[in-house]
């Protein structure tokens, strides 16, 4: 089973097909994607200035990550990490660039996925194995989506992430 699937946001069944392919079931991921999709208003992706997750979807903001995308040279920075995400990671990533961490560099699996979302403007579902401080999590389910910004040479990405626990 693959760990990531990119899909066409204009395909009304794209999200459901991608989630089925990855064996994903997270309602949180669905709600996060629907927020992003509504915010597009017929465009390829929403403009960052036109959304306010803290106001629009306060129940989902603990599960959000916002990334800055610098295109020259390409790198990704953790801008905002929601409280539920922060407590399940092994360190505080806010303000840090992917290039600062060996497991986030261009040769790993994370960087190329963010790069592909930036280049194509298409959302991506991911279901990687959980790596972090909690033994009762087995994997995460997330959706990574592009945002536009007005600053040339820059972009943003928004992710909603759900931590899936082992069944007891």
Tell me about this structure.
This protein is of the alpha+beta class and 168 residues long. The chain has a single domain, classed as PAS domain (Beta-Lactamase). Helices cover 25% and strands 27% of the residues. It is built from five helices and six strands. It has a six-stranded antiparallel beta sheet, sandwiched between helices. A hairpin with a 6-residue loop joins strand 5 and strand 6. The two termini are 23 Å apart. The model has no long low-confidence stretch (mean pLDDT 93).
The spatial strand order of the largest sheet comes to 1-4-5-6-2-3
Question: Looking at the structure, what is the overall shape?
Answer: globular
Largest sheet: 6 strands, antiparallel
Quaternary structure annotation: single chain
Topology:
Elements: E1 4-6, H1 14-22, H2 27-40, H3 53-56, E2 64-71, E3 74-81, H4 83-86, H5 110-120, E4 124-126, E5 137-147, E6 154-165
Antiparallel strand pairs: 1-4, 2-3, 2-6, 4-5, 5-6
Would you summarize the structure shown here?
The protein has 168 residues and is α+β, with helices and mostly antiparallel strands. It contains five helices and six strands. It has a single domain, classed as 2-Layer Sandwich (Beta-Lactamase), CATH 3.30.450.
């Amino acid at each position: 089973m693959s760990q990531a699937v990119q899909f066409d946001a204009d395909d009304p069944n794209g999200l459901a097909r991608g989630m089925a392919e990855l064996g994903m079931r997270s309602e949180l991921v669905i709600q996060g994607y629907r927020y992003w999709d509504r915010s597009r208003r017929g465009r390829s992706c929403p403009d960052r200035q036109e959304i306010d997750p803290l106001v629009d979807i306060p129940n989902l903001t603990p599960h959000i990550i916002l990334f800055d995308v610098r295109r020259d040279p390409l790198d990704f920075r953790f801008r905002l990490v929601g409280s539920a995400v922060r407590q399940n990671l092994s360190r505080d990533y806010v303000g840090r660039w992917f290039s600062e961490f060996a497991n986030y560099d261009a040769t790993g699996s994370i960087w190329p996925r963010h790069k592909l979302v930036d280049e194509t403007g298409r959302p991506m579902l991911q279901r990687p194995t959980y790596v972090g401080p909690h033994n009762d999590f087995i994997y995460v389910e997330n959706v990574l989506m592009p945002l536009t910004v007005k600053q040339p040479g820059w972009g943003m990405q928004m992710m909603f992430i759900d931590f899936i626990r082992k069944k007891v």
